[in-house]
Amino acid sequence: MELSLDFPKEVVMEGKTSIVVPKLDAYVKEAWEYAPSKAPVFYNPTMELNRDVAVLALQTYQQTLNKEISVCEPLTGCGVRGIRLALEVQGIRKIVVNDINPKAAKLAKLNAERNNLAERVFVMNEDANLLLSRYAAPRKRFDFVDVDPFGSPVPYLDSAVRALRDGGLLALTATDMAPLCGVHPRACIRKYGGKPLRTGYCHELAVRLLVGCLTMTAAKHEIGVEVVFSHSTDHYIRAYAVLHHGAKQADNSVRNMGYFLHCFTCFHREASKGILHQWKRKCTECGSRLNIAGPLWLGKIFDKEFCVSMEKGAWRDLGQKKKILKLLRLAITEAEAPITYYAIDKICDKLNLRIPSLTKTVDELREAGFQAVPTHFNSRGIRTDAPAKNLKEIIAKLAT
Ligand SMILES: C[S@@+](CC[C@H](N)C(=O)[O-])C[C@H]1O[C@@H](n2cnc3c(N)ncnc32)[C@H](O)[C@@H]1O
Ligand SMILES: [Zn+2]
Predict the structure, then answer these.
(1) Is the CB of residue 34 below 6 angstroms from any atom belonging to ligand 1?
(2) What secondary structure, in 3-state letters, does 147-213 show?
(3) 51 in ligand 1 pocket by Cβ < 6 Å?
(4) Nearest atom within ligand 1 for CA of residue 101
(5) Would you state the pLDDT for residue 29?
(6) In what order do the strands lie in the sheet with 372-375?
(7) Ligand in closest contact with the CA of 263
(8) CB 3.0–4.6 Å: which of 52, 67, 145, 183 could bond 318 by disulfide?
(9) 3-state secondary structure 313-352
(10) To test the ligand 1 pocket, which listed residue (17, 55, 99) has its Cβ within 8 A of the most ligand atoms?
(11) CB of residue 104 inside a 6 A radius of ligand 1
(12) By alpha-carbon position, which residue is closest to atom 25 of ligand 1?
């Protein structure tokens, strides 16, 4: 029986791509309902920025390789991401897009055809892990795999890592922020193998937990991980990592694993590299018990040059250009800034102080000789090498 796409649809534009998607208005009866998951095929317009950034990251990556590349999007929904990559990124030889939902695969095929991409975009309809495993052999592997699922990408990590060639780029979206930000710590330990903490900088810890999980997964396959970009936007996080084959590379990546120690009494925090050694359990500043996050990634989560190159590539027509430029500007300064940030509103809450302006706080920290930059993770966050004590003194001074 011929599969029917006989449901309410509409045509939308994203980037250079005109695409047929389910008419989301037709699927919400109550204002609180989440339309994308009610529709027969998945399409979420609020993820446009996620896709815009993917276009920039992939173009940057392709330029560093300077050759034609192959791409796989194993969980594609209506096909918008893969089709946008095919149309907007120069130097793509082929893209395999796939969805387990037959209606999604059919709509993705229709979308590829109406954008004249039938010769470069190949649409499949099977389980993502099966698909990726079929491309795991040498010479069959992809240059780029974009895992953009519902919730956590962890169920697809092993097969995605295996389906990438040496030097390939992997992109991961995670939308399960409740586990990753410490609302459901057990779920996070179960899925990501690391303990989260509900700190002011939990979104950065979330990226580090995701990358930590990727690192340990890739290490099993003797593959190392180099993170070139990451961001936290709306209700998801995203990480881009280049994979390097070899036991040595894997060992070097595992050396970046460790724990984060945080004091909820005074905001002091410290990183402790290594997963096997003992750490002090008392806060060196105030003597309180330290709480632990991890094991998680303590290495860099942005590559400055990569971010600069993405920024250079952002001249193109992107729906979310303004937000992306802001994100990239912040990421460029964050690339060389200290690990974790202080959420000044959380400090003020605890000290019962008025929240000072972020810019003034940054200026004061710099005047006092510390490094200080804002962060895209939190509009009230500051990355600084100042100890919590000095930061609190500056905040108290500004609050008077
Ligand atoms: C979040 S949506 C994908 C959105 C898409 N990447 C985009 O940018 O618009 C997740 C998709 O994964 C599909 N899916 C769920 N489980 C799958 C599996 N095991 N294999 C392949 N596709 C799957 C769903 O049908 C859904 O279309
Ligand atoms: Zn303390």
Answers:
(1) no
(2) ECCCCCCHHHHHHHHHCEEEEEEEEEEECCHHHHCCCCHHHHHHHHCCECCCCCCHHHHHHHHHHHH
(3) yes
(4) 25
(5) 72
(6) 342-343, 378-384, 372-375
(7) 2
(8) 52
(9) HHHCCCCCHHHHHHHHHHHHHHCCCCCCCEEHHHHHHHHC
(10) 99
(11) yes
(12) 101
Secondary structure of residue 235 in the 3-state scheme: coil
Ligand 1: centre distance to CA 157 (Å): 14
In tens, the pLDDT along 82-133 reads 999 999 999 999 999 999 999 999 999 999 999 999 999 999 999 999 999 9
Q: Which residues contact 132 (CB under 8 A, 6 or more apart)?
A: 72, 74, 145, 156, 159, 160, 162, 163
Q: CA 44, CA 173: separation in Å to the nearest integer?
A: 14
Q: Which atom of ligand 1 is nearest to the CA of 43?
A: 9
Ligand whose nearest atom lies closest to the CA of 288? 2
pTM of the predicted model over 0.85? yes
Buried b or exposed e, range 302-329, using 16+ CB within 10 angstroms: bbeebbebbbebbeeebebeebbeebbe
- Atom 19 in ligand 1: residue holding the nearest Cα: 127
pLDDT 10s digits, 344-375: 999 999 999 999 999 999 999 999 999 999 99
Ligand closest to the CA atom of residue 287: 2
User: What does R_g of the chain's alpha carbons equal in angstroms?
Assistant: 22
Q: What is the DSSP string of 73-115?
A: ESS-TTSHHHHHHHHHSTTEEEEEEE-SSHHHHHHHHHHHHHT
